[in-house]
Amino acid sequence: MSAITQAPTSQTHKVFDIPEILEAALLHVDMRTLLVSALRVSRFWHFLIARSPQLQRHLFFREDVAAEPADPKTNPLLRETFPFCFPRDGDDGRARVYAKSERCATHGQGEYHNFARRTAAHVLHNPLAFNRLQASWRRMLVQQPPLKDVGDLVTMAPDQRVLACQTRSPDLQMVAGRFLPSYVRMPDVLSLTLAPMDVSFPNMPEGPVAVSFRVLWRRRPAVVRNGGTQGGDHPDLAERMVSDYGVVVHNIGTVKPSPLRKSVARLREILLRHPDHIYAMDSPIF
Fold first, then answer.
1. Nearest to residue 215, comparing CAs of 83, 72, 82, 85?
2. Rounded to the nearest 5°, which phi and psi values hold at 146?
3. Is 228 found in the same domain as 144?
4. Containing domain of residue 41, as a range?
5. b or e along 172-202 (b: 16 or more beta carbons within 10 Å of the residue's beta carbon)?
6. Whole-number Å distance between alpha carbons of 169 and 150
């Protein structure tokens, strides 16, 4: 039994009845344990975690205005849960390219993965928990300090045409009758990474085309860049966007007709659609 879920002795019970002491202790507890176990210890613990500004910043629910912009910290729990959206250890600073379609599309950089089954099998196998509109991951900031926009870059291979170079503002979210501050949260990134790509070209029927994606993040100045870029055939444009916005979703298409992989379409359905019957469910998210 975890120490966080053990019944407290009379002495420890008295100590943890003091909000300041309990808060200081919980700041050293990992995010998953706080969300899955600590919230359920008692109403007092639940109330403290939900109302403490420090704990809410620790859980990436609340912006940390004191965080250093030059040293951003991505959300560790979201990195673990959605690894295809975040930098991977051992990738030497490059952003991996993931295929969304049966017929892959790329600028010649990165690797291909059946990423939905390789890195998101836990989502596919637990759809009800992740589909819940009230799920914690939907409200989490992707990094501290928070980001205000997502860069949206769309290019076509092999001629490297730029079809879109724009920003996406975060979708508004309401919790307990109040709108959350407009910062980038996980659904804002997923809506671009999991989107199909429909284009129309002369002498070609309209419809979905092969598309891959990569997610680029602003990195610490001390990180040595591989060749001065994060890969791709538009390094200057991509790097400028990352510098401006902090995170860029780069979709890479070709004229080859190809629908989304079934596993990707299913992942999109779970994470970005909210059937009415899900609202009443009470399954855990992580």
1. 85
2. -70, 160
3. yes
4. 7-59
5. ebeeeeeebeebbbbbbbbbbbbbbbebeee
6. 7
| CB burial of residue 206 (10 Å; 0-12, 13-18, 19+) | exposed
Asked whether the predicted pLDDT for residue 73 surpasses 60, the reply is yes
pLDDT digit string (tens) for 78-100? 999 999 999 887 666 678 889 99
Question: Tell me: the pLDDT tens digits for 103-161?
Answer: 776 655 555 668 888 899 999 999 999 999 889 999 999 999 999 999 999 998 877 78
Give phi and psi for 33, each to the nearest 5.
Answer: -65, -40
Task: Say whether both 11 and 92 belong to one domain.
Answer: no
pLDDT value, residue 57: 95
Considering the entire predicted model, what is its pTM? 0.82
100 and 234 in a single domain? The answer is: yes
Calculate the average pLDDT of the chain: 81
What is the distance between the alpha carbons of residues 104 and 112, in angstroms, rounded to a whole number? 8
Q: Which residue has the tokens 């009470």?
A: 282
Q: What are 26-53's pLDDT values in tens digits?
A: 899 999 999 988 888 889 989 989 999 9
CA distance 276 to 247: 32
d(C-alpha 284, C-alpha 36), whole Å: 7
Say which amino acid occupies 17: D
Whether residues 93 and 195 share a domain: the answer is yes
pLDDT at position 284 over 90: no
Question: What contacts 208, CB < 8 A, 6 or more positions away?
Answer: 101, 196, 197, 198, 257, 258, 259, 260
Written as one string, the DSSP assignment of 62-127 is: S--TTS-TTS-EE-HHHHHH-GGGS--TTSTTPPPPEE-BSS---SS-S----HHHHH-HHHHT-H
C-alpha to C-alpha distance for 273 and 285, rounded to whole angstroms: 16
Same domain, 50 and 71: no
